[in-house]
Amino acid sequence: MRTTDVAVIGGGPAGLSAAISAASLGAKVTLIDRNDRLGGQLIKQTHMFFGSQKQHASVRGVDISGILEEQLSKYKDNVEVLLNATVLGLYEDGVVTIEQGEEKYFKIKPKAMVIATGASEKVLPFPNNDLPGIYGAGAVQTLMNVYGVAPGDRALMVGAGNIGLIVSYQLMQAGVKVAAIIDAAPKIGGYLVHASKIRRMGVPIYTSYTVKEAIGKDSLEKAVIVQLDEKWQPVPGTERELDVDVMCISIGLSPLAELLWQADCEMKYVPELGGYVPARDEEYQTTVKGIYVAGDVSGVEEASAAMVEGQLAGLCAAKNLGFTSPDFEARRQDCIDQLNTLRSGPVGAKIRAGLEKLLG
Amino acid sequence: MRIEKHPILTFEKGRKVKFTYNGEELEGFEGEPIAAALHAAGVKVLGHSSVHKRPRGFYCAIGNCSSCLMTVDGKPNVRVCIEKLADGMKVETQQGKGDLI
């Protein structure tokens, strides 16, 4: 059977970073991704990143993907990349089964693995929420920014977190009008610098508003929004009807944790981190020895944090197999410090609360 | 609707190819997802739910949610949000759950 030292499942920001750092210690790495290119959701992120220089601040997400791939290519002698490859199962004897393309099915037995499968977009319940024209905000980002197709003429953005704000701006860049951004919370969740930029372009942001219903025959034609009181209950008489053919749902992500469940990792429900997330130690090792996690699957956060988590998990996975370098401890500590910085201040309050629940 | 002008992006497209959607001939670019080509041609409804027959479009566009299943070249349950368009493809609305053989 094929073997490897560290199998990394998922080639987004976390997985790429994990593969680079594990390979840098000399471990043989197999990086597995179901898409035909690496980068995960970085490839649609046309905005410049925040954070510090170490997390590529001021560089556009799509370009960060290229930078990481180039770093990975330095270790091509001990890195194998499997594209179009979907991990189907993790078995109790440590065997991973993979389907590549439609023809190949094989097994691999890694000594350790980093699971970096990311997250998927949540849906919002309201009448007719399944009408075509109602999409995840990330889906619209993919359609516009990767494939150059506009989703429609006029959009309603549901959710004023960073994704909602950024995608609203990107909709306007693509020539789509944004009728409004709404958020059920009384406060804008994303960075104010993004919100201000959008308001300056004339897009209203309504806080304490939600979707009452969507209207349309075959696809979205109108959306009815309604104000919420302090108990999050709709206020009668505050309904507004918006003529929109696109609605983007941007109310958060939930971890794609199926493989972790399958591997019997202990899972905890932490709403601040997006739902069920794996219990793990400071090295990002789960309760199943040799299985590490990084990125959104370990708790939904920004891509900047995902990259640092990936570095840390990759380093530790390799180190615990006996690979090391003189600067290992310094690099490990640097990752921990970077994560603490990224999660500091009011912006990181929710993540800190979530991690407090997770790690106790 | 194709985005013709974008302030920061340029889109590299494959060659123009023809495909059919329920028998109707449409054009798209080779290598783009079938759903993107359909959307650009104004097709938002990709199928109907199996019990209540409600219209279905794509939702996630990255192969997670299964909202976009169609029959492509006779094969059912293809996720058209990630399946690449090729010249001469026959794309059809799927009836029912699809048979393996």
Plain-language structure description:
The complex is a heterodimer of chains A (360) and B (101). With 360 residues, chain A is an alpha/beta fold. Chain A has 9 helices and 19 strands. The longest helix of chain A is centred in the C-terminal third of the chain and has 17 residues. In chain B, a hairpin with a 2-residue loop joins strand 5 and strand 6. The radius of gyration of chain B is 14 Å and the shape is globular.
CATH topology of chain B: Ubiquitin-like (UB roll)
Which residue ranges of chain B are poorly predicted, with pLDDT under 50 across at least 5 consecutive positions? Answer: none
Main beta sheet of chain B: 5 strands, mixed
Radius of gyration of chain A: 21 Å
Strands, helices and their partners?
The complex is a heterodimer of chains A (360) and B (101).
Chain A (H helix, E strand, L loop, with lengths): L1 E8 L3 H12 L4 E4 L28 H13 L5 E4 L2 E6 L5 E5 L3 E12 L3 E3 L12 E3 H10 L7 E5 L3 H12 L3 E7 L8 H9 L4 E3 L1 E7 L6 E6 L12 E4 L2 E4 L3 E3 L2 H5 L4 E4 L4 E4 L12 E3 L9 H17 L8 H15 L6 H11 L1
Parallel strand pairs in A: 1-2, 1-6, 2-3, 6-19, 8-15, 9-10, 9-15, 10-11
Antiparallel strand pairs in A: 4-5, 5-6, 7-16, 12-13, 13-14, 17-18
Helix pairs in contact in A: 1-2, 1-7, 3-4, 4-5, 7-8
Chain B lengths: L15 E6 L2 E6 L4 H7 L6 E2 L6 E2 L12 E4 L2 E5 L10 E3 L9
Parallel strand pairs in B: 1-7
Antiparallel strand pairs in B: 1-2, 3-4, 5-6, 5-7
